[in-house]
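Q: Can someone sanity-check these two? First one:
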Amino acid sequence: MSLRRTPLQRTPMKRTRSKNQPTRKRQRDTGFPESVKKLIHERSGRRCEVRQACHGDAAVQIHHRRPRGAGGSSVAWVNQAANGLDVCVRCHTFIESAREFSEAHGWLVSMNKKLRPDEVPVLLAHDAVPVLLSDDGTIHRPTKGD
């Protein structure tokens, strides 16, 4: 007597949602808008603005100096150019891991202090002294009288 084996018929399972289960909300985009990204890239020349863990690598991420917080922020200036730094992956990791050092250099802006990023000086790789960043993508260097 010979047994015939037939392959199992597999049918995909349908996912059904119960009537009591709410629909998923779309995750909102809480990052920089394209127009602001362009300002930041123009300011940096698409090179890392921190250069603490690199030698001027290509900038592939934009770092929020003042963190958005979990789930994003409704404060408009969080996604402005003064709050963004063009960084490479290694420098971004360095900034996030050495938070006290990064705050002292202006790469991070404390959420405890009530200062906006355009009010906090930041030390950029190509400057000898800290500068102020503005929301229009420009850099304000201190003059001798400051």
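And here is the second, same format, sequence then tokens:
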Amino acid sequence: MPGPDPAPATSTTHAPARAWLRPALLLVGGALLTLLMVLADQLIAALAVGAFSLFMAYWTSPLRSGPHTPLASAQERARGADGTAPTIVLWAPGDPASARLQAAIRAPREDLIWVNVFKDPAAQQLLGRYGGERMLPLALQGEDAARIDNVSELFAFQDRTRQGGAPGGAAGAGPTTPDPGADPSGRSEQRGEDESDPPRA
């Protein structure tokens, strides 16, 4: 009897072509500026600009790996949490908002699990159900989800969902269907029925 197929989390996905546009522009622009400085005999400045352009092209490209936990493992960890379940954050290399959030949260945190959607087909499929890449970075807590722009929004989302009694972390986020009438800007949040009340101080 043939064995089971490999788990989807072990396969890889490919970054869309548009994810390479920003790093390509940075690389070309940096190369042109470096060339102009070399022609002007500004060698030290040319080296600095060239190095900075290479770094920024890498930082904004899908080549940057960053923190990653397969979605299935993240959901299992959230289900098995003894206390408050950690928040799963879907992110992608080359996404400016994802880069800003990770730059602000540099140290590992027990209450956050990072999932790179370019490395996990299941995570990419889940992200598509919430509106696709325009929703990055997407925080998942129980059956609640929200696009996060900064650390303050992330912590506010955690407080709101946990006070509302969001069950079991992101394990319950999989079957949740996004609201088709959500704000096109991607900044709307899915809320539970009991979240209309303001959070307690």
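A (reply): Looked at the second one. The first helix runs from residue 21 to 39. Residues 134 and 175 are 20 Å apart (CA to CA).
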